[in-house]
Amino acid sequence: MRIDVNSFVGAYPFRKVPGTSSDGLLRSMDRVGIDQAWVAHLPSVFWRDPADGNAWLYETAGRQSRFRPVPAVHPGLADWEQSIAEALSAGVPAVRCDPMYYGLDPVGSEMRALVKVCGKEQVPLMLAVRLEDSRQRHPNDRAGELPPSAVRTLVRSDSRVRLLVTHADRPFIEEVHFGSTPEESARLWWDISWVWGPPEDHLETLLGTIGVERFVFGTGQPLRLPETSVAKLDLLDLSKEQRAAIESKNIVIWPL
Amino acid sequence: MLIDVHAHFLHDRSPRLDWLARNASRLRAGERVGITVHVASILGSWGASSPIYFPSPPDLEYGNDFLLQLQRSNPARIRGYAVVNPNFTTHALAELARCLDAGMIGIKLAASRRANDPLLDPICRVARERSVPVLQHIWQHRRREYPGQEASDAAELGALAARHPGVNFLLAHIGGGGDWIHSLAVVRDLPNVFVDLSGSGVDGGMLEACVEAVGVERLLWGCDLTIDTGWAKLRYLEHMLTGDELELVKWRNASRIFPPTAFPTD
Q1: pLDDT per residue over A205-247, tens digit each?
Q2: How many CB pairs under 8 A join A and B?
Q3: Which residue from A minimizes the CA distance to B235?
């Protein structure tokens, strides 16, 4: 079982990207052997109200049993708690918020309110550090990257919240993990999409220093080739149990 | 046969205490991926005693010597690019002669001098005379100056390539950061510029754009600092290209632009 916790459907506004339809995502999943994808609606990351994409996302995921929707929540808008209620009734695996793209202070009162509700309702909150390499972004794609300090602050701000952070590299992960208590870091999961393999061996290092149990399989597709996350696991000498933990079990169990 | 046209090794005078482990990791991962030959360079002292992208002549000599040693100790797996700093013309020409005579198969120019600068011309004349390609470090669409390097972009490499139509150039790491769309548009009509697919970038659509811009005949497979992303691109290409096209990207194109005796099958 391989679950991609970090995938998107829908067009990207800043460049031509193939495979953004739900059929395209399915083809890609088949190509690299992904059984289930946690799917977010890519265009609405850039909308004034990102939750406007949720209805389409629920409908799309409802037609495909291998998709699980990850709806967006904008805690700076008046009806954001309704988005959470809809997400809970839909049985989503997580909700996502991209404060840097929404123009929100990543540790401001809105985000802290969202974290509290996610903690209370026991729905994991997904946060992306970035979507593309900052060196190649469109000149008008000026949203900042999520800083490590924001993740440290948010995980401390509610003792029940669970955060799934995608697109983080090794320095980011180390800064947050070793800047958190064991209790705090036990509520953090990291997808492997942006962590380097050999010869720098960042992923191998992190699995040794932080632990296999903190990492989950994610790709960032279709903005990134999903083959990358499979290749970096294939380049490790993992036991069958360790590989299964990263590819599905860590995220299915969501232990507290 | 699989040739990585953009590899690096570290050495004992680099700032990295883990240099041996990194070198071993590259070779180990290469075995798993099926890399036949790593065509590599060492950028001086990697910053220990002169800047990575502005290496001093003594550091260049040490790095090149170390790579020659690696090439001799791993003759089936490792080939070398001679690295020179165009600001030291006399030294660069002597170093090229020394390293190419010793068996290196290409020239690596990092970011010591802009690619369109006349100081690169004598180096390119050596490349022509010795029939070796030039791997030019590129910042894909350099919109400004970046500290620590005098980076070039595809337009600047294009100017150099137009002045030296008899030399083959590798536009380094199309996935290495920056706007690759800009680079591909620039090199589309430059037949002596090949696109090196290495770099940590694995953007959806990038490989399709590379094929569309320069065709499979001018694509070269490579990894640079991340073998995982190189392997991912190779796996994607296996679905995207025909068998014959894939062979071009994997090794046949490289075999065509490097010296005839550079690789085992020649």
Answers
A1: 999 999 999 999 999 999 999 999 999 999 999 999 999 999 9
A2: 98
A3: A227
Q: Residue B164 has which token pair?
A: 């030296």
Query: How many CB atoms sit inside 10 A of residue A137's CB?
Result: 16
What per-residue string of b and e applies to A50-71 under the rule 16 or more CB within 10 Å gives b?
bbebbeebbebbeebebbbbbb
Choose among A8, A21, A28, A11: nearest CA to A167: A8
Whether the ω angle into residue A199 lies within 30 degrees of 0, i.e. cis, is yes
Give just the sign of the alpha carbon dihedral A88, A90, A94, A96: negative
ipTM over 0.95: yes
Put residue A122 in one of left, alpha, beta given phi > 0 → left and psi -120 to 50 → alpha: left
pLDDT single digits (tens) B79-102: 999 999 999 999 999 999 999 999
Strands A36-41 and A125-128: unpaired
Residue of B222, B246, B235 lying closest to B35 (CA atoms): B222
Token pair 């953004």: residue = A20
Check if B205 contacts A (Cβ < 8 Å): yes
Contact A158, A127 (CB under 8 A): no
Q: Do A227 and B32 touch (CB under 8 A)?
A: no
Instruction: Establish if A1 touches chain B: CB-CB under 8 angstroms.
Output: no
Q: Are B199 and B174 in contact (CB under 8 A)?
A: yes
Query: What is the Cα–Cα distance from A49 to A26, expressed in whole angstroms?
Result: 27
Closest chain A residue by Cα to residue B180 = A136
Q: Give the sign of the dihedral formed by CA B54, CA B59, CA B61, CA B65.
A: negative
Contact A136 B204 (CB under 8 A): no
Residues of chain A positioned with their CB less than 8 A from the CB of B25? 198-201
